[in-house]
């Protein structure tokens, strides 16, 4: 093999890898050994371009697939609501009408679905990707799901002889657009090695965490912390107002101290104006808190703060805020819950 063989068999010296724009692959190239359905020879000898499937074109899937296309990858897309495929098709993506057909026509298929139910259905349902998988193919689920669901998806994929990687992401709409996501991967290490150049197109760093379930669990822990932080920040903004302080000053003060977080600086000014342009839908944050609490229950870890935050997001959902950004959780304190506790 030429240069690509080291890519295929590259060892993983550390669990953590980061990439800069300069280090990123300029072309979407894979080893021939990865694919039995290789498409076109490239100018780099033995390397050939691989075909990549992308299932789920929501807030995250659309920019991620777009970045693969812009990097020169051969991308085939599917989404339940077909119209969301149109912008990708206009950029050069191919389209198939079922996940099964996408998986059958691609070397590696990514999935970015809403929740455990949709991730399982798209992977293993009647027209799911598993039906189109076979040995030498790979399936990479980048959705945020619980570890048991990820393991079930992995089992269905691996029954076909294909490889499976879970790779949920930290980072929201803007990092997805900028190609600066953080991948939390686990599962088949050879597949991790093969898709690393693709992860580096879509992200700025990647962690390989071992067995399937570890990536899902890490993602839920991160989002559990995030959901609690946002709930606490919301209380702080409203307490400022009630105490006669300017909440804009709170945003500035927090930004300069030990509890500074990009999330507070980016979302605080809009929250003060009651504006919640959706980057991370509130319904998904509540889903992640629910799944994190299930994880905590399964290992008997007390998580009272996350449990309280979860209740707040549930109130926000019942107030019709599911599709707003998760920062709209502040409205649960402004309205219903606030009145209940007065
Ligand atoms: N937004 C964010 O900041 C981040 C989100 N995530 C996670 O990534 C995943 C996707 O998030 P995001 O893109 O924001 O979510 P969206 O709600 O924007 O997109 C959800 C996607 O799932 C599809 N879908 C939902 N239900 C079904 C179903 N029953 N069958 C088939 N497809 C279905 C939707 O299809 P359709 O278009 O037809 O509705 C859409 O493609 C979630 O797991 C989320 O928790 C992770 C990191 C950041
Ligand atoms: O799952 C969503 C994560 C959002 C973020 O990391 O900013």
UniProtKB/TrEMBL annotation:
<dbReference type="InterPro" id="IPR006115">
    <property type="entry name" value="6PGDH_NADP-bd"/>
</dbReference>
<dbReference type="GO" id="GO:0050661">
    <property type="term" value="F:NADP binding"/>
</dbReference>
<dbReference type="InterPro" id="IPR036291">
    <property type="entry name" value="NAD(P)-bd_dom_sf"/>
</dbReference>
<dbReference type="GO" id="GO:0009507">
    <property type="term" value="C:chloroplast"/>
</dbReference>
<dbReference type="InterPro" id="IPR013328">
    <property type="entry name" value="6PGD_dom2"/>
</dbReference>
<feature type="domain" description="6-phosphogluconate dehydrogenase NADP-binding">
    <location>
        <begin position="51"/>
        <end position="210"/>
    </location>
</feature>
<keyword id="KW-0560">Oxidoreductase</keyword>
<dbReference type="InterPro" id="IPR015815">
    <property type="entry name" value="HIBADH-related"/>
</dbReference>
<dbReference type="InterPro" id="IPR002204">
    <property type="entry name" value="3-OH-isobutyrate_DH-rel_CS"/>
</dbReference>
<keyword id="KW-0346">Stress response</keyword>
<dbReference type="InterPro" id="IPR051265">
    <property type="entry name" value="HIBADH-related_NP60_sf"/>
</dbReference>
<feature type="active site">
    <location>
        <position position="219"/>
    </location>
</feature>
<protein>
    <recommendedName>
        <fullName>Glyoxylate/succinic semialdehyde reductase 2, chloroplastic</fullName>
    </recommendedName>
</protein>
<dbReference type="Pfam" id="PF14833">
    <property type="entry name" value="NAD_binding_11"/>
</dbReference>
<feature type="domain" description="3-hydroxyisobutyrate dehydrogenase-like NAD-binding">
    <location>
        <begin position="213"/>
        <end position="332"/>
    </location>
</feature>
<keyword id="KW-0521">NADP</keyword>
<dbReference type="GO" id="GO:0030267">
    <property type="term" value="F:glyoxylate reductase (NADPH) activity"/>
</dbReference>
<dbReference type="GO" id="GO:0051287">
    <property type="term" value="F:NAD binding"/>
</dbReference>
<comment type="function">
    <text>Catalyzes the NADPH-dependent reduction of glyoxylate to glycolate as well as succinic semialdehyde (SSA) to gamma-hydroxybutyrate in vitro. May function in redox homeostasis and play a role in oxidative stress tolerance by detoxifying glyoxylate and SSA generated in glycolate metabolism and GABA metabolism, respectively.</text>
</comment>
<dbReference type="InterPro" id="IPR029154">
    <property type="entry name" value="HIBADH-like_NADP-bd"/>
</dbReference>
<dbReference type="Pfam" id="PF03446">
    <property type="entry name" value="NAD_binding_2"/>
</dbReference>
<keyword id="KW-0520">NAD</keyword>
<dbReference type="InterPro" id="IPR008927">
    <property type="entry name" value="6-PGluconate_DH-like_C_sf"/>
</dbReference>
<comment type="similarity">
    <text>Belongs to the HIBADH-related family. NP60 subfamily.</text>
</comment>
